[in-house]
Amino acid sequence: MKVTVKGQVTIPKNVRDELGIIPSETNVVFVKEESGKWFIHKEPSGKKQPSRFRRAHKSAKINMTTEEIMNLTRS
After folding, report:
1. Which of 2, 18, 33, 73 has a CA between 20 and 30 Å from the CA of residue 59?
2. What is the end-to-end Cα distance of the chain in Å, rounded?
């Protein structure tokens, strides 16, 4: 896995799915054990409400108009 010039890496989708990491909603921490190994851990969520876009994601139907979909993001 390559590291960008900003020190960023992409967490593979299967790892994000298994850990329940949601972009823009999940914080992760890096933990170093006494053995010197590093691990990534998902921080516990503080009952944060999902973004309006995340809430609308599963509400939209294929046959909805653009205006109906936009109204879902405004609620």
Report:
1. 18
2. 39
Split the chain (75 residues) into runs of 10 and give each run's mean pLDDT: 92 90 86 92 72 68 79 76
DSSP secondary structure code for residue 72 in this structure:
H
Q: Which CATH number fits domain 1-44: 3.50.30, 1.10.730, 2.60.40, 2.10.260?
A: 2.10.260
The pair of structure tokens assigned to 8 is 């960023």
Residue 72 structure tokens: 């879902």
CB 22 within 8 A of CB 13: no
Helix (H, G, I), strand (E, B) or coil at 61: coil
**Cβ atoms of residues 48 and 42 within 8 Å:** no
